[in-house]
Amino acid sequence: MATDQIQLDRIDTAASDTQRDIVAGVKTILLHVQNDKALDQTLESALSLARACDAHLDCLHVTPIQAYTSFDAFGGTFVMSEVIKSIDEEEKLLSERLSAKLRKEGVSWDYTQVTGDVASQIIGRAALADLVVTGRQPKRTAFQGPTIGLLGDLLHRSRTPLFIAADDGKLPDPNGRVLIAWNGSFEAANAVRSAVGLLRLASEVRVVRIDEQKDETFPSTRLLEYLSRQGINADLKVEVADPMPLDTDFAYACLMSEAERMEAGYVVMGGYGHSRVSEYMFGGLTRSVLGGCSVPLFIAH
């Protein structure tokens, strides 16, 4: 493995705290509320971002329509009054719990509960949000399916970037160090542009490029120049897979290792540079990080 490092100096753009709030660019954060053991960490991640950006927290809890239906032995469907009562009680307790917590946090917030298709409801609400914060832990019910499927739907269908809480309890530090996973793709470029407001708050930004043979890539120095014009100081670290070709396991291990080494507050990357079918059939970096990541993740398609 070979490593090269490049750095471009930032133009001096000292800003007041008020100016930093303005340039953060994230003013509406959509929090996907799931009543599971990952809720507290996901909520704390959203609060950390909301405080740093002086943003409004839009909390959305979606009850899947399938939760209200049951199936009989002959394939028929029906709705049980006991199920409706149980779901209503659960939703009320969740709303009261979050409301009590948020009233003490000193951030602007609202809470909405709807019933419908989970992905479609989040995507519709995200149309007027700057960031969607969610977690990986699914509700322990058969109808919701694997978390990676929902995250894949949100990433592929929404035009709003996702911020996914870490698996191990690590909270994001918007004012700390940030790692950008760069492969020169349009998806990676979209993610960087979407993250510019947050990146301006970071104390250090490092771009990691893992060399692979791919056409239509942006030169890495152009990314550093682009960030510099945005007032963001960044350095570039290039990892070369040896032997080639580059595989997903190497890329994933390389990114996670570098993120832990620099104690990154979160990682920025593009998702689904290949089709979702290819990712599912043959694996891919997007599928790996959606399945599990020890660092908070900012990801866009």
Automatic annotation (TrEMBL):
Residues in domain UspA?
27-140
Coiled coil (residue ranges)? none
**InterPro entries in alphabetical order:** UspA
Give a Pfam family name. Usp
Q: Which Gene3D superfamilies match?
A: 3.40.50.12370
Please name the CDD domains in this protein's record: USP-like (cd00293)
The family annotation for this protein states:
Belongs to the universal stress protein A family.
| Name by which UniProt lists this protein | Universal stress protein
Query: According to the entry, what is the taxonomic lineage of the organism?
Result: Bacteria, Pseudomonadati, Pseudomonadota, Alphaproteobacteria, Sphingomonadales
